[in-house]
Task: structure prediction
Amino acid sequence: QLQLVESGGGLVQPGGSLRLSCVASGFILDDYAVGWFRQAPGKEREGVSCISPVDGSTYYADSVKERFTISRDNAKNMVYLQMNSLKPEDTAVYYCVLDYRPPTIQTMCTTVPAYWGQGTQVAVSS
Result:
């Protein structure tokens, strides 16, 4: 069974921080690029950040550069998104995503990855 399960979402004030976690099962994580997409109310899903299977190269959407950090722990089948300096426009459902050796990490984060979790809600508000 292939499964991605996110956790760590919640309500936070502007300027605050959250750390999202995702655990993958049914995969050999070393073979897959992983990342995070989000969907805000009334908007389409967008790629937030993705990380390569082995070498650790990363992609970030311009809107989150220098605020969000993606990381992975292949031994634990985990992927994380550390979100700092959160803004109201970061409010969205965040999805853990996974794809098998995409041509580039940017390609993965700007198209539609193969596998998705159910999502975790992040709300940034005063």
Remarks:
- The CA atoms of residues 7 and 21 lie 5 Å apart.
- The first strand starts at residue 3 and ends at 7.
- The chain is about 5% helix and 50% strand.
- The longest helix spans residues 105-110.
